[in-house]
Every structure is written in structure tokens, then in C-alpha cells.
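Q: How would the C-alpha cells look for this protein?
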Amino acid sequence: MGAPEELAVWNAIVEAFHAANPNIRVKVEVSDWDSYWDKLKTLYAGGTPPDVFAMDAPLYPDWQSRGVLLNMQPYIDATPGMFDDIYPNTLTAYKRDDGYYGLPRDFQTVVLYYNKDMFDEAQLPYPDESWTYEKLREVAKALTKDVDGDGIIDQFGFSPDLWDMETFWSSALWSHGAEVISEDYSKTLLGEPKAREVWRYIAAMVLEDKSVPTPAVSAEYGGDPFAAGRSAMAMSGHWVVPEYAQLDFAWDVAPMPSGPAGRFTSVNSAGFVIAKDSKNPDAAWEFVKFAVGKEGQQRLTELGFAIPVLKSIAESSTFLEQQSAPIKHQIFLDAMEYARPKPTFAGYEEWASIIGDGLVPVWNDEQDLDSTLDEIVPAADEVLAR
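A: Here is the predicted structure in C-alpha cell form.
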């Protein structure tokens, strides 16, 4: 799972692994998101699963509950100090009562990205820790304009992902005292009164202020108006840094805004799992152990896509002083202080599609917000019940 650019880096990690383990050979394959999961299902159906494969934390409960993953706990028990240097909250998503069926290889906290050139042109101060969601709306509206004078907005103040919870709306909900889902994952809470207040705030930015592009407009800019130079602000994880490092405008990152309930962001991780039916479980474990160890983490950090799970690497110059992107990388680590794990539960993929797809007509001004929530919340709860 990953961008094609990652192939070279993983091949470099594998080359180092081969040098340390000459009797084990590893072949690396990467695919885009959709192709990756489709290929995995095909391989499992054919009885030829990969020994080791990448896992997105929210999808982990589904895969683990199918009984197709290897419990790594015996290997972990035989490796003293395995978790000593790992950020504890990156392990949470993978822990089960009888052990770990996966381990995090990196993690992502979401922060606010901003186009410094657009702020400078408008003579506006850059975002900082004093920002609230009301300030975000105010400044986003001020930075929204018709640059060409043709009656069409072509510079947006803010371009969040309106589909997935991870980069924007979960943080907005938490910051206003609302919740996404109940603690036991049995009830969707997106239609509760406090949550509806946040949805109305978002809808106002899209439909009234016009400072947030609709999904259809975002698609015209490749799904990322910020990278296209058409948006002054966005929210994302560290995974966009290598791409943004190539942009021809100045940009940086800032903490997430705060709300009445405080400042929150989400933290998510990608991990490694081992197939239960692997014919080489010992060798597979040696590779996983290497990838989450110091040498593997050092090389992965040099790629710049994510934050290493090892504190000693994340808090070193390798991460904090990346020459390809001289931004405030410390902001991503500071965000851990107010981060909440992205919810992970069985049925997540179907549940997320019901919410994300169901709200698109609202953002396109085709359906009423409240009646839409009244429809999609029970549908989402049906998934949880199954």
C-alpha cells in the first residue's frame, strides 16, 4: 500500500535488511490504495497471501476478526525492549486481548497547512496556536476571491477533505464537544445536537461563504486545491510533505484550531501484519522487526511521508530538519499532546462510505443537511449492528 515513489525507499530498506539477514530474501510490491486492497483479497482467495503486508489501522479490526493474521505476541515476548522506544499511542489500534496481530510502522497527526504567499499578499498574519474555528472561518472567507474577475471563485480560503473524518471533521467535532461514535462502537453520534452544530458550521463555509470548494470543484484540481495553488489552507498529515516540497509557492504548517471543548486532532497509523498462513513466519517477523527498528525507521523517515514510531528517530534531526521541506516539523510531534486516535472498528470501510458518500449531496447543495443526517445515521448504525 503506497505511492510508487515509495518503492525505491522500501527497496533500499530491503537491501539493508538483506545485508543483515543474508539467508532471507524479500520482494517488494506497492500499489495505489484501491488496487492494493483488491489485490490482497484476490491473493487470499487464491490461497497465496503475502507473508507481510501493510495495514491501515481503521481497517485492521476487519482483517484481524477474519482470523487471517498471525498473532505476533510470542515473537514480541522473545524480543526484550521491543516497545521501549515506540510512542505508546501508536500501539493502541493493534492491541487485542491475546496480543498484537499487527505493529505500527509509522503514524500521522493532522495539522493545518497554509500558503504563505497568499497570506503575505493579503497582509494577514500566519495561523498560530491562538486560532479558533471561528478564526479559521473568518480568515478563510477573507482569502476567498475571484482572481480572474470572471465571476467564478478560483482562490478558496480553505480546502479540507469533506469525505473522510481523518483530516478535518472529526477534529472539528471533538473540539466542539461532539463525538463521532460511541465508545463501544454500537452507535453513530454524528446526528446528535452538538455534532449538528459542527455540520452546520461546515455547510456554512461551503454553501454561504463559498470559502470551501465542493467535492466536484475539488476534483477539478486533482482533489487537492491547496497543492494546485488554488487554496490558502488545508488540513492533512505528513504524507503530503514530499509532494508539497516540490510546489512553487511558500508554505508551512501550524497547530489545529481550538474550539469550545479544546484543541484536538486525529492520529492514525500504517502498520505491518503477517499472514496467519505464511509459509515463512519466522522470516516475516525478522523483516517486521527490522522495519520498526532503528535502521528501518531511519530510512523510512528519510522518505518524509510519515512520522516514525520510534521517539529517538522522530525527535532527531532526521525528522525535524528535513532539508527537502524546511518547515516546522515539530508541529506534528506537538500535535500528539492533543491527538485522539482515528476510530477503528469492524465495518469501518462500509460505515465511512455511508457517511462520506451520504453527505456529498449536502455539500453540492442538493439535499438538506438535517434530513440527510436523519437518513445516513440509521444506515451507518445498521453496519455497526452487523
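The first helix runs from residue 6 to 20.

The domain at 6-109+266-338 is CATH 3.40.190.10 (D-Maltodextrin-Binding Protein; domain 2).

Upvote if useful.
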